[in-house]
Amino acid sequence: MIALASDHAGFELKEAIKKHLVENNYDILDFGTNSNASVDYPPFARMAAEAVAAGECDKGIICCGTGIGVSIVANKVKGIRCALCTNEFTAEMSRKHNDANMMALGARVTDQELALKMVDIWLNTEFEEGRHKRRVDMIEELG
Length: 143
Hints:
By secondary structure, this protein is of the alpha/beta class. It contains 6 helices and 5 strands, in the order βαβαβαβαβαα. It has helices at 11-23, 42-53, 68-75, 88-96, 112-124, 131-141; strands spanning 2-6, 28-30, 59-64, 82-84, 102-106. The chain has a 5-stranded parallel sheet, sandwiched between helices. Helix 1 (11-23) links the parallel strand 1 and strand 2 (28-30). It starts with a strand and ends with a helix.
């Protein structure tokens, strides 16, 4: 199950991601928002992050204008490693080396085609473990 959330700026990108995921047989849980009417992003990002942290969802994808705000919110939730991805390489490495369980995307700085490519890469890349596991464990120890 993939958690999705956005604010108004990320709404259209979230909807495109949702459609793409459903077409590719992923189960999704959409935490909103449900329109492009102006809203504050923290409650939406927090709900998605809490669902991932609680194990209700395996991973989460959250969107706002730049991806910065929602990533900051998600990373406040214990157990979340949310990566702001800006290109295919960062999407891949956030999974391989950081075992990111959430991805943040900026709808105003990333076009939809690239965003969908990053989503596919991110969802299909496995964590390499090894020396990276030790580092992720160090992150988790921070609280």
